[in-house]
């Protein structure tokens, strides 16, 4: 047996022991659900203590009330967990719980506490990592300037008629986008993001896997995703919302796939809500894990089973638009969309090729869902992205790129109609899809025409103004 197999076997034994409650003196990660928010030090009448002015303004604009669900978890409960020797990673207001690092023995002892509803194993504890400084080489050799403003990104934006939005002056100004991903290597150095730095448009970033602010590392995936929205190098590469503000949140643990990542995702989504973010992009998806005891079954694609899917719906109900990648399993054994694309209120984005046909890898919806999934489609094949290590362009494919192309334009469209609710923006986009009359489980409502959606919303705005003047 190879050394690698010995290691894997050892890991399997450890994880099995944790799952079956054996008393082993190792730190692992658990999710603790609390039974209530009794005697909370926070009150819905004083929301400034846990939500920003921008977040409160969004809720006031759309008449969204604050409820007990919005209150932070009870601090006394957290103190009790800490006293028992556990370490709190973060908490969730919406799920009323906390991610903690503890031994199985400690977790078992906590089950008897009156305020603990349940404790669930969500993955191994990998330990903290040190920040890495990646080299970036400035080399413009082979960087071709094109005559049109968008450079290599023009065709993708024009397929959605998004360039017309830009020409009307809607490029994301005044809007706030959160990007949840696995890392944003060298975003702080790459010239394509100079505009972000010049305008100080990247003003928040946090790593929920390591509890620090070191997000410009670990993975180039988030770098590519962000570029589809935020890059600005005229004649070479221009994103779909180059003048928006951004927050980069790392939720993906690159050292393994476990349910912990879903809870990281929820915590990041709540953080985005507290900042007052308008639109969220997540090019992440879950269905299979390193520990196969955690794997999902297609029948669990119901928008309710996964904590991430539930949180996506809660975020929408609080006034945000959540855009997620549909998944890249269309030609695999799994075939279906990933979580949280199953959330009924998340916009799940499929990928199409340059000719508008479905990309083979793009995931299908699950036919037992009560809503059409995926929702919409955008270009996702050979999308131009920055090379993360030198000043060159590369290309990437996947619904991971289709989602941010859509996210940026959704943001620009909403910029044009800030008085309209998220539900109206989404409805207009679906109505503008090229197969809006016959949506299916491959591309949903199809490729949206953003100028058609603009006209739909303009008519809606005119109707509202007419009623108000009566």
Description:
This protein is of the alpha/beta class and about 475 residues long. The protein folds into two domains: about 90 residues, 2-Layer Sandwich (Alpha-Beta Plaits), CATH 3.30.70; about 300 residues, Rossmann fold. A seven-stranded parallel β-sheet has the order 6-9-5-10-11-12-13, with helices on both faces. A hairpin with a 6-residue loop joins strand 14 and strand 15. Helix 12 crosses helix 13. The longest helix is centred in the C-terminal third of the chain and has 20 residues. It is globular, with a radius of gyration of 22 Å. InterPro entries: Pept_S8_subtilisin_bacteroid-2, Peptidase_S8/S53_dom, Peptidase_S8/S53_dom_sf, Peptidase_S8_Ser-AS, Peptidase_S8_subtilisin-like, Peptidase_S8_subtilisin-rel. Pfam families: Peptidase_S8 (PF00082). One of its GO terms (biological process) is proteolysis.
Total domains: 2
SS-derived structural category: alpha/beta
Any idea of the CATH topology of the largest domain? Rossmann fold
Largest sheet: 7 strands, parallel
Number of strand elements:
15
Strand-and-helix sequence, N→C? HEHHEEHEHHEHEHEEEHEHEEEEEHHH
Provide the CATH superfamily of the largest domain: Peptidase S8/S53 domain
In order across it, which strands form the biggest sheet? 6-9-5-10-11-12-13
User: pLDDT average, as an integer?
Assistant: 93
What separation lies between the terminal Cα atoms?
81 Å
Which strand-content bin applies to the residues? 15-25%
Unreliable residue runs: 1-23
- What's the alpha carbon Rg, rounded to whole Å? 22 Å
Number of helices: 13
The CATH architecture name of the largest domain reads 3-Layer(aba) Sandwich
Which percent range fits the helix content?
Answer: 25-40%
What would CATH call the class of the largest domain? Alpha Beta
């Amino acid at each position: 047996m190879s050394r690698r197999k010995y290691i894997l076997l050892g890991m399997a034994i450890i994880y099995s022991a944790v799952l079956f409650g054996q008393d082993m003196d190792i730190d692992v990660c658990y999710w603790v659900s609390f039974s209530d928010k009794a005697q909370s030090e926070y009150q819905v009448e004083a929301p400034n203590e846990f939500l920003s002015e921008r977040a409160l303004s969004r809720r006031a604009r759309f008449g969204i009330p604050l409820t007990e669900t919005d209150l932070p978890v009870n601090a006394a409960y957290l103190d009790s967990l800490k006293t028992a020797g556990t370490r709190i990673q973060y908490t969730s207001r919406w799920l009323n719980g906390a991610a903690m690092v503890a031994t199985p023995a400690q977790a078992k002892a906590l089950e008897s506490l009156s305020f603990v509803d349940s404790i669930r194993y969500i993955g191994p504890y990998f330990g903290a990592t040190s920040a890495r400084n990646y080299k970036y080489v400035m080399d413009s050799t082979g960087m071709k300037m094109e005559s049109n403003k968008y450079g290599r990104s023009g065709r993708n934006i024009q397929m959605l008629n998004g360039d017309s939005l830009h020409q009307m002056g809607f490029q994301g100004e005044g809007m706030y986008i959160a990007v949840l991903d696995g890392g944003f290597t060298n975003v702080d150095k790459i010239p394509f993001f100079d505009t972000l730095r010049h305008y100080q448009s990247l003003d928040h970033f946090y790593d929920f896997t390591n509890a620090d602010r070191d997000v410009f590392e670990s993975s180039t995936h988030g770098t590519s995703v962000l570029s589809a929205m935020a890059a600005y190098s005229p004649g070479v590469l221009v994103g779909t919302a180059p003048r928006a503000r951004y927050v980069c949140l790392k939720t993906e643990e690159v050292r393994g796939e476990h349910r912990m990542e879903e809870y990281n995702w929820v915590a990041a989504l709540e953080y985005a809500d507290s900042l007052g973010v308008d639109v969220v992009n997540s090019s992440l998806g879950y269905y299979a894990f390193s520990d196969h005891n955690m794997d999902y079954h297609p029948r669990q694609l119901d928008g309710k089973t996964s904590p991430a899917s539930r949180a996506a719906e809660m975020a929408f109900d609080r006034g945000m638009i959540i855009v997620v990648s549909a998944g890249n399993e269309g030609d695999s054994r799994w075939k279906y969309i990933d979580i949280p694309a199953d959330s009924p209120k998340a916009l799940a984005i499929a990928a199409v090729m340059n000719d508008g046909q479905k990309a083979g890898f793009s995931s299908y919806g699950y036919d037992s869902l009560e809503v059409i999934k995926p929702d919409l489609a955008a270009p996702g094949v050979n999308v131009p992205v920055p090379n993360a290590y030198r000043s060159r362009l590369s290309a990437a494919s996947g619904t991971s790129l289709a989602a941010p192309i859509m996210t940026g334009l959704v943001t620009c469209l909403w910029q044009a109609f800030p008085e309209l609710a998220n539900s109206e923006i989404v409805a207009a986009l679906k109505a503008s899809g090229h197969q809006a009359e016959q949506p299916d489980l491959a591309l949903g409502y199809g490729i949206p025409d953003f100028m058609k959606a603009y006209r739909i919303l303009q008519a809606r705005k005119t109707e509202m103004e007419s009623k108000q003047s009566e």
